[in-house]
Amino acid sequence: MAVFRVSGGAILLDVKAAPGASKTEIAGVQENRLRIKIAAAPENGKANAELCAFLAKSLSCAKKDVALKTGEKSRLKTIMLPLEALRKLEALTASL
């Protein structure tokens, strides 16, 4: 079960977002996607911005290098990450 793949010099991470949580955190794997609770409302892009900032911090990469590829208005999203985050992402998802 892989929640991410390497494609075209970047990592594509499949996420199932759960906005409106009390705390932003990883909540396991669901439907072959990394489930992330987001402490922001799903309005005006706030939850998407919080999600990208959380992933950037968790994977020690710059916010500008984390981008929403698909799913702007959906709970099912694909996030593009830099290849430099691969080892940390593998470590983060290994225990799930």
- Taken from the alpha-carbon principal axes, the silhouette is globular
Query: What proportion of the residues is helical, as a percent range?
Result: 10-25%
CATH class: Alpha Beta
Put simply, the count of helices is 2
Mean pLDDT: 96
Q: Could you tell me the radius of gyration in angstroms?
A: 12 Å
Share of β-strand residues: 35-45%
Largest sheet geometry: 6 strands, mixed
Low-confidence stretches: none
Please characterize this protein's 3D structure.
By secondary structure, this protein is of the alpha+beta class. It has a single domain (4-94), classed as Conserved Hypothetical Protein Mth637, Chain: A (2-Layer Sandwich), CATH 3.30.1200.10. It has helices at residues 46-58, 86-94, and strands at residues 4-7, 10-19, 25-30, 33-38, 67-70, 76-82. Strands 1, 2, 3, 4, 5 and 6 form a 6-stranded mixed β-sheet that branches. A hairpin with a 2-residue loop joins strand 1 (4-7) and strand 2. It is globular and about 30 Å long. The mean pLDDT is 96.
Topology:
Elements: E1 4-7, E2 10-19, E3 25-30, E4 33-38, H1 46-58, E5 67-70, E6 76-82, H2 86-94
Parallel strand pairs: 2-4
Antiparallel strand pairs: 1-2, 2-6, 3-4, 5-6
Name its key features.
96 residues; alpha+beta; Conserved Hypothetical Protein Mth637, Chain: A; 2 helices; 6 strands
Brief account:
The chain is built from two helices and six strands, in the order ββββαββα. With 96 residues, it is of the alpha+beta class. The model has no long low-confidence stretch (mean pLDDT 96).
